[in-house]
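# nightly structure sweep
# worker-07 picked up a monomer target from the shared queue
# config: single-sequence mode, recycle default, output format = structure tokens
# input follows
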Amino acid sequence: MQRTGLNADNMPKQYAAVAVGGVLGALLREALEVYIAPVNGFPLATLLVNWSGSFFLAWFYTITIWRWKCPQWLRVGIGTGLVGAYTTFSTFAVETDALLGKGRDLTAILYLFLSLAGGFGLALLGSRLGGGRSEPDMARESERATATRLTAEDEEAQA
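# output follows
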């Protein structure tokens, strides 16, 4: 099976990049989990890991689409490998369940809210800082492209 932008010759390179990125991302997350202790039972390390991962992934993918030329195998190695291993939805889910199990419902709701709102907000910020185009910008470009195409078709019809 071949995916767009990747030929069979690049598959070993891509798998190696994902593996190396995965090891580095997992080690980085573990270091932060050990270094940043929970605050009154609140899983601050996981929150910070997931926030920073959301920001970085959005920034990295946006900037490598719009500004920097980056080989697909490297983008996947960093995005899927490094950031995928660094961030953790499963730990977030287990920690939320543990807070609920200990009767810390308000803390669990706060953790849930901060994780989701912060993750989405930081991803949006990362995308904007990476030079991502907003919906209005993309809509204007689409309108210009359509107008250009229609003008060219009209000129051909008149010729």
